[in-house]
Specification:
8 helices, 15% strand, alpha+beta, 5-stranded mixed beta sheet, Cytidine Deaminase, domain 2, 2 domains
């Protein structure tokens, strides 16, 4: 059914004006963002197709161009607009989490607080979590993407950002898309290098956490930070 065929009082925009945005369904919210359909598919049809594709609304944060491929009635411009909105939402959420002081001294807490960064990723992402002298988080920084290799993890980038945010210490955290959290030879080499340079620079690496399928591996917990 096209939007114009829906009784005016039941159309998403009219319902938003009458009942408020908080009372709209996920389908209606998406339909308003999509604005209009094409090729015989209404904005509501497209919204329903997207929701079926992602299965759960919480998976919207992992939306990518591949997920939107073959959604009938959804052109390239609308795909880009949806991805931009999702990215803005992620940045707003991330900014809000940084406003609350987080003391990073427990590996499980660190994992729980950052695992959302890796949901649905098909390649490795390497972050540094920079801390002040009280071990409070002051900045997260995505530094590298792709297969983690000692030759690709440049210590100068890690420590340059530490200086820029006046960090006293840092934690590395990256994912293994395979789900296996056991450290590779490259993971061990990278950690050893950053440990050694950190001691010289006076900015200590206090843990390296590998994220997998609903679990993690902590170098600190496994006595590999010596």
């Amino acid at each position: 059914m096209l939007i114009k065929e829906i009784p005016k009082s039941e159309r998403p925009r009219e319902r938003m004006l009458k009942y408020g945005v908080h009372n709209l369904s996920n389908e209606e919210l998406l339909a308003i963002i999509i604005k209009s359909g094409t090729n015989g598919y209404s904005a509501k049809d497209i919204a329903i197709s997207i929701l079926k594709r992602i299965e759960d609304i919480t998976n919207l944060k992992n939306l990518n161009m591949h997920t939107l491929d073959n959604i009938k009635g959804l052109g390239q411009v609308k795909k880009q607009e949806l991805l931009v909105l999702v990215e803005l939402g992620r940045r707003i959420y991330l900014n809000n989490t940084l406003k609350t002081e987080k003391k990073y001294i427990n590996p499980d807490y660190i994992y729980q607080d950052n695992k959302y960064l890796f949901y649905g990723l098909k390649q490795e992402h390497f972050y540094c979590l920079y801390l002040n002298n009280k071990k409070n988080l002051i900045e997260r920084k995505l530094l590298f993407m792709g297969t983690i290799d000692r030759s690709l993890i440049h210590p100068r980038e890690v420590f340059k950002n530490a200086y820029l945010c006046s960090a006293s210490a840092f934690i590395c955290i990256h994912n293994h898309p395979s789900g296996d959290v056991m450290p590779s030879k490259a993971d061990l080499e990278v950690t050893k290098t950053l440990l050694e340079i950190g001691r010289i620079q006076g900015i200590d690496l206090i843990d390296h956490i590998i994220v997998g399928d609903n679990n993690y591996f902590s170098f600190f917990e496994n006595h590999l930070m010596e």
